[in-house]
Amino acid sequence: MELAVTDITKRFRDMTAVDRVSCRMTKGVYGLLGVNGAGKTTLMRMLCTLLHPTEGGITWDGEDIFAMDGSYRRILGYLPQEFGYYPEFSVHDYLMYIASIKGLRPAAARRRAGQLLETVGLSGSERKKMKKLSGGMKRRVGIAQAMLNDPKILVLDEPTAGLDPNERIRFRNLISELAGERLILLSTHIVSDVEYIAREILLMRGGKICAAGTTEELIEAMPARVWRVPAAKDQAGSFMKSYKTANMKAVRDGVELRLLSEKRPAEEAAEESATLEDLFLYYFGEKAGEGNV
Amino acid sequence: MFKYELKKIFFRTGSIIAMGILLLLIGLVCWFATDVYYVDRNGVKQRGPSAVAKLRAEQKAWAGYLDEKKLRRVIAENKKIKSSPEYQSENETDREIAYSRGQGFEDIRTLLNKSFAREFREYDYYRADRLSEESALRFYENRVKLLKEWLEGEANEQYSDGEKAFFISRYEDIETPFYYDYATGWSRLFEYAPTLVMVMLLVLGYLVSGIFSNEFSWKADAVFFSSYYGRNRATAAKIAAGFCVVTGVYLTAMLIYSAVVLLYLGADGWSCPVQILFSGWKSFYNIAVWQEYLLIWAGGYVGCLFIAFLGMWVSAKTKSAVLAVTVPFVLIFIPSFLGNIRFSLVGKILGLLPDQLLQMGNVVGYFNVYSFGGKVVGAAPVLLVVYAALIIPLAPGMYRGFRHMEIG
Ligand SMILES: Nc1ncnc2c1ncn2[C@@H]1O[C@H](COP(=O)(O)OP(=O)(O)OP(=O)(O)O)[C@@H](O)[C@H]1O
Ligand SMILES: [Mg+2]
Is the ipTM here above 0.95? Predict the structure, then answer.
């Protein structure tokens, strides 16, 4: 059970959305972390055979997924970032339809849909029309839909976008629950979504995977260190221009900054242990003033 | 999954409105087609079932072979009425009373007008009134004579010798005398069928336009195409749904329309030659009324299916429902803008456009023929065969176009 991505590139005209990406995934949760436009969705679409890579290949247990055709899609579940549905369908109709195009027999589909609605906390809403559901409920139907065929590979593109903090926590738990014997690839730009549940995190920027590994490995490998720096109010600005700043909090006699730097940024600075948030900042963050050129 | 494809089509406000419009239109067309009046002996126009019954009874009294004896009687009766004081009167009611007396043979009188026209393409409403009883002899002969004159004169350039010979032989081969019967049910049915079929096609075009493209506009495409059957069976189910919608709606609408008109006006005259109908006198298709009815059914069905499939094919290729809805509009309205050029090369091409299928009743009256290696064939069978054959590659065409879609 291995999904291997080898040097894939996807170009749209003159724009390279995914640039020579390689990675290997087996079972467990993988978090694909990146800012807007990093190429996450494009990469996932290729993994779901919706787009052909311009270069490179993707294999499942050594077989090309495009050549596998139906037999690959049979073990695939996908929740797209923009999850579309048939507005006039009831939740039940929707799930039954998707089950049918996933090759489930009606009796099995009914059973499975019932179980999944319970898992995602929607039993009782079967007769509701899709268009009348709240955003969070739609996402949950989206997850249920992706899980109908009990996929070995579950691809979730920003499943937590637009969810409130409570929903977000429920979601995280749900994903851990679903993990089991499958490969889950989950994209997000919110660190906490994957921090504790992902077995491995892939950091994506400008179409490239710029770092990958477990949280510990990534933090270990991060070139910068994290410092807590007390400073006077008027000094804060100059610190923030020179260093990536994770946090600033007001204290009694000034401010306290959390900075990323390879070297000690100031005499009074105290080193702290880094978190995934810091890592995210290190790879994707900007110093104050950058970016508004 | 087929069942859900149908749900996707019909569970939309737009589709419900479209079906409502179609029902309304069927009602309207039925109403127009059955709006027949009878003028009673007091010169008063009557409508409704009893009027139909009276008209039918009077016309049925004239049913039978249109031989010399019968035509002489018609000419004589007509003369009598036309020389009556009521007919000569300035008074509107008196003239209606005169008309009332001739209602039974009015259809035959119009055939006399046609047969004795000075020119092939002329129609003189009063021609029959000037005929002597002896002319009855020349009723069938005239038909051929006018055709020949036309082919040698006005239409000389438009047809090859083979085609001319074809028309003449069709005219000469027809069995005479014609058997006449009351056939108002059929002539009314034929008259309004094109309107019904064309509007039905627009509704059908709308219904099927979203079958493919809505997956994209609903953003349901990603889940669809990443599913096991998305790129094969589920795509095929869409084509099947399109086919069944066209077939189901067409059959239902035509059945309702035919049933209403024929039950109300009567289906008498089904076995008469189409030449006894006002629209059929000149037709070179030597067929019976029921055969023209079948042609209208078949033509309408093939036409609707072809155009609807063409629209689906366009939307499967372009992801656009708008383009798909445009197809039927263009195919129906462009030819009518180009006018009634029925002859010459342009006419030959126009005669083969799919809008012709929707009005087979008219095609039966047109002089459109096509030659294939010396053999001359009328437009009606050519249209049916050509478009039935063109439908076949459209299905695999849209299948391939849709299943290979990239979602990016
Ligand atoms: N079909 C397309 N045609 C042209 N450019 C595209 C297409 N799809 C994506 N792109 C471009 O590719 C880049 C990567 O887009 P992608 O959607 O993969 O990013 P993402 O990481 O998913 O971003 P987000 O977090 O906003 O969802 C973007 O610059 C985008 O404009
Ligand atoms: Mg995205």
Answer: no
